[in-house]
Write a structure and sequence with these properties.
Pathway: Carbohydrate metabolism; pentose and glucuronate interconversion. This protein has 362 residues and is of the alpha/beta class. 38% of the residues lie in helices and 15% in strands. It is built from 14 helices and 12 strands. Strands 1-2-3-4-7-8-9-12 form an 8-stranded parallel barrel. Helix 4 (80-96) runs parallel beside helix 9, helix 12 packs parallel to helix 13 (297-306) and helix 13 (297-306) crosses helix 14 (333-349). The longest helix is centred in the middle third of the chain and has 21 residues, at 178-198. The two termini are 28 Å apart. The protein binds D-mannose. Residues 65-66, 103-105, 111-112, 156, 206, 271, 317 line the site of D-mannose.
Length: 362
């Protein structure tokens, strides 16, 4: 398991590369050009800027999250071909700087959705919260206005540029069913995967978060059967998944341990975090510790270990603790604690392989 840490870029993240470097076992950053609109080709000079900064901090940049998919691709519009061409060019450029995994998602309009970014957990910490009934009643346009007023802290999928087009997008998706999405993702994969293979980059689709349709928009990356169907759409080691325990875990019917065993060779990247699910379907993100939530974190790490997982792993959303002011879900402290918990589990399962202790010369 190779540990990495998400970094949103200078001026866009409260966490610094030097801080990331000091978290035990972290070797690289998970990055993206957050100011490039979905569908555009990534400019090489901006890619090189990130590479230079990471090099300086002694961190690699092998994992990109995300190269976002233009809505026209998800909608299957004729204009998708030009965006797919741009995507291919971006893949080729990323290969030049040593990228090995590209994480992306195929969720219509929105990326992850929560109703409260700072819900108290009872110990004074706060975390991202999803109140099921609110999504049904939520005034989308009020929400859009709130985010527009705070552009420094946009969330993935909620960028002001996209929010302005919300009504238009909702209209475009009218009549688009899950089966249409399946067809459109297959079209995308058939175009992209051969290019990714040629450049030795593994594509890793992220599950939908939450893993069910929202606002009447279809969602397909929701559970084990659908992931199985997805992987068969284009059967190649370069067509893989990002196993996100928190996204899949928001539906307690999802058996993530079983997914690890079934899909092990198609998982180049994992997001590991815990979530506490309530009976009414609400959920809150907790510390990574197994006992604090509903997700079998230790079972998942054990399953990864049993399958000799050699892919990348990052802690995912953390709580906001110790008065840290940070991007919602992306503070330093709780994610660093999460990493140490994940290493604790991993190393315990590796017991026996670390018994040799040597003293080195200075
Ligand atoms: C949330 C992330 C997602 C993820 C995308 C992948 O924090 O896990 O936003 O990056 O869904 O494209």
């Amino acid at each position: 398991m190779k540990m990495v840490f998400r970094w949103f870029g200078e001026g866009n993240d409260t966490v610094t590369l030097n801080q990331i470097k000091q978290i035990p076992g972290v070797e690289g950053i998970v990055w993206a050009l957050h100011d490039v609109t979905a569908g555009e080709e990534w400019p090489m000079d901006k890619i090189m800027e990130i590479k230079a900064k990471a090099d300086q901090a002694g961190l690699h940049i092998k994992v990109v999250e995300s190269v976002n998919i233009h809505e026209d691709i998800k909608l299957g519009l004729p204009s998708r071909d030009k965006y797919i061409e741009n995507y291919k060019k971006t893949i080729a450029k990323l290969a030049q700087v040593g990228v090995k995994v590209i994480c992306y998602n195929f969720m219509p309009v929105f990326d992850w959705v929560r109703t409260d970014l700072h819900k108290e957990l009872g110990d004074g910490s706060t975390a991202l919260f999803y109140e099921k009934s609110k999504i049904t009643d939520l005034d989308l346009f009020e929400q859009v206005k709130r985010i527009n007023e705070n552009p420094n802290f946009t969330m993935p999928g909620w960028e002001p540029e996209r929010l302005g087009r919300l009504t238009e997008l909702f209209d475009a998706y009218r009549g688009v069913t899950e089966e249409h999405l399946w067809d459109n993702v297959k079209y995308f994969l058939d175009e992209i995967i051969p290019v990714a293979a040629e450049h030795d980059i593994r594509m890793a689709i992220h599950p939908d978060d939450p893993p069910w349709p929202i606002f009447g928009l279809p969602r397909i990356m929701t559970g084990q059967a659908n992931i199985r169907r997805f992987l068969k759409l284009h059967d190649s080691p370069y067509n893989g998944i990002t196993l996100c325990s928190g996204s899949l875990g928001a539906n307690p019917a999802n058996d993530i341990v079983s997914m690890v065993h079934e899909f092990a060779d198609r998982i180049p990247f994992t997001h590991l975090r815990n979530v506490r699910v309530y009976e009414n379907g609400d959920f809150i993100e907790t510390s990574h510790r197994t006992q604090d939530g509903t997700v079998d974190m230790s079972g998942i790490v054990q399953a990864l270990h049993m399958n000799n997982f050699e892919g990348f792993c990052r802690p995912d959303h953390g709580r906001h603790i110790w008065d840290e002011q940070c991007r919602p879900g992306y503070g330093l402290y709780d994610r660093a604690l999460g990493i140490m918990y994940l290493w604790g589990l991993w190393d315990a399962y590796s017991k026996g392989s670390h018994t040799e202790r040597t003293v080195v010369q200075r």
